[in-house]
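Molecular record:
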Amino acid sequence: MSWRGTSVFVVIVALLGVYAWRSSPPTLTRGGTTLQRPLLGCSPERVTHLVIRTADRKTRFVRGAAGWRAETDDSEPHPDVTSLLETLHTMEPLMPVGRVPEDLERFGLAPPETHLEAWAGNDPVMVLELGDRNPAWTGLYARRADAPIIELVGGVLYWEIEKLWGSVAPDDDT
């Protein structure tokens, strides 16, 4: 390769590097380490109740001495709530994809398909609206109640919610 070809190659690689750096998702810094903000910003052990709502269903799960139970369910505990909370606590957004309010309908968030609320006592620690899956079905579009952006999050969240819904009989909904 000639020196001109090498120079053009170096410039292209530098421009791609600058583009990748400038288009990275928003991050937070804690103790000198740069972190993305997880969906559930507190320890799952702090959460005392979880509300999941769709257009036709709503269930409130409450943490008790024997584990998580649907509010109207006196039978078996629902360990899938713990799994969902751990997923939310470790999951970070993959990338920002749109802005509120102009992109809500485009990503299935007008109205949202699923609404999640996690509470620690009387304090909401997470309010998350979920919309459509992305075209490859590897992620979901999400909006936090306190943020003006729409983010793409991992598709495992969809699976965790479906697993939890499957463990609750429809007559247990409130």
Summary: Residues 3-22 form the longest helix (20 residues). The chain has two domains: 3-30, 35-172. The helical segments are 3-22, 80-90, 156-166.
